[in-house]
């Protein structure tokens, strides 16, 4: 009993954010492992062209995440602030549920009206699909992605309450369910159907967060449809700031697949997708750490505790650089084996130069994201609104220009250049300026 009590005491002394980060890392490993094996199954079942279309749909998820209109991030900060003051926040959760439902129906209606036109633009190089097929695939994927965005508000609630391990468990479970469904489809007579693979691959990602949000609202609120303007206004006003920041950021981070869909052949899109999956595994581990310490930074900022904030900055940058650096070296050394594992039937060559560009890009992301997270935890979004439009214009313009001239590497060079010219120096400068003013 003495040994058990000591062990229990040690566990209780572990900071909550380390539980969150640890569970996030486990979740990312599960998600990445299932995702890697899904790539193998998908490329074998669908072939290069259909898998390229599947990859483009996956690249659009960042745009659909904007359909919560920033309510998730706004709610997380409001909850963190009220927890720091010992105040109730259930009314904010109820209001978020009402707003989320309204946003869902609005954006689905917009999608129904525009899916034909948008699908023809995004999939214009895919002649193997008819107009009706393109519209159907785009609509089904869009509805699921909108649902995932609204349901994802539940994850923000858990993170704000320092119960992020619950938010990390859901994506891992969704990945496992998707993996099993993709296997089932690949073994069925519908193995070559992109429609069924979209349902199997993305459906659980929508269903689980929606279920989690319903459970959260049911357990934490007693007056779901009580609409208090005093709650709606601060939730929406701050949410729209996050939404605008996310929209502008999407102009930088989410245009790569759109550019490739217009100027590159399916084979190059698959090469980019497989390479990015490897680096996303590394970056997901890092981003899970930032997500876990976000509420801690929000509480530290509310208390004007800059020592704590800067400790989080330094530790996060070191961890991120080590992850990306070692991951890049490992990918270069074992690239033949890795690509062979992911796509045994399709011949795909990933040049060392492309891997190095990916590594440099994600090192810049590590640096920028930690300073960006600090400012967002303070709800100080003005710098993003000022510099991101410029960065987005640079990113889009350079990506289009260079992709036309040099192909796939032009996408990454455009992204890297836009980061070096703006956030790499602007974000730390703003954080240091805020620190000096306190």
Brief summary of the model shown:
This protein has 438 residues and is mainly alpha-helical. It has 18 helices and no strands. It has helices at residues 2-13, 16-59, 61-64, 71-85, 90-122, 131-151, 153-160, 164-187, 194-220, 229-253, 256-263, 266-302, 306-333, 335-342, 352-377, 382-406, 409-421, 423-437.
Percentage of β-strand residues: under 5%
What sort of overall outline do the alpha carbons produce when their principal axes are compared? globular
- Average pLDDT, rounded to a whole number, is 86
Order of helices and strands: HHHHHHHHHHHHHHHHHH
Number of domains: 1
Residue runs with pLDDT of under 50 for 5 or more positions: none
Sheet/helix structural class: mainly alpha
- Continuous helix count: 18
* N-end to C-end Cα span: 49 Å
How many beta-strand runs?
A: 0
> For the report, how would you describe the main beta sheet?
none
Can you give keywords for this protein?
438 residues; globular; mainly alpha; 18 helices
Give an account of the 3D structure.
The protein has 438 residues and is an all-alpha fold. It has 18 helices and no strands. The chain has helices at 2-13, 16-59, 61-64, 71-85, 90-122, 131-151, 153-160, 164-187, 194-220, 229-253, 256-263, 266-302, 306-333, 335-342, 352-377, 382-406, 409-421, 423-437. The longest helix is centred in the N-terminal third of the chain and has 44 residues, at 16-59. The radius of gyration is 22 Å and the shape is globular. The N and C termini lie far apart (49 Å). 45% of the residues are buried.
